[in-house]
């Protein structure tokens, strides 16, 4: 479930205003700018949390630095949302239950991307690589952000239905599974987190050969449905990014 365009536009305004006022992008500067106490601890599977009562942001210290930075920006977006009564009210009027939670999380991912990524860097990456897996990796490196943040940002720039997926094995020598997804509003479906990818799918081939791919294939839904799509991949270390654009 995606936020409405007007919700995303307002969150982008809030995030960009925050970024303009506070241009430092390191963890402690961001935390100080948000007026929040930073707490680092092992949160297990959770990346982080925001405690509005005590103005504290808790970060999982077992994650890598870029992941921690994205989590911090995501929690700052939660704080910005809670401080905007009109936006918060509109979201609660339009959504409820699980859909409400999904919309808030996606909205805060979008806010995090806008806090962390300078518009000039994003434009340069898109001019070089277009909407592709290479663009995701390049943006992550140049902006010094997590792959997740880069995926969200690139997906939102796409004009056609686009789904970006981070795949990695659940354990060494195990098949690839879906680890994280980002998509634009035009792409109406998604893959299930933890879903196993067929061994003969090009994404698995790219991971096994360590070679990027650029070809027509399909989105492998859990139901068995195969949606035709153009795919670019870029393998890196123990994972591979795939960008599906419907054809």
From TrEMBL:
Check the record and name the Pfam families matching this protein. Answer: Peptidase_M78
Question: Which residue intervals define the domain IrrE N-terminal-like in the entry?
Answer: 32-141
Q: Does the keyword Transmembrane apply?
A: no
What Gene3D superfamilies would the database entry show? 1.10.10.2910, irre protein
Name the keywords, alphabetized.
Hydrolase, Metalloprotease, Protease
Q: Does the record carry Plastid as a key word?
A: no
Report a single Gene Ontology molecular function. metallopeptidase activity
State the coiled-coil residue ranges. Answer: none
Tell me the Gene Ontology biological-process terms attached to this UniProt entry.
proteolysis
Protein name (database record): Radiation response metalloprotease IrrE
Organism of provenance: Deinococcus cellulosilyticus (strain DSM 18568 / NBRC 106333 / KACC 11606 / 5516J-15)
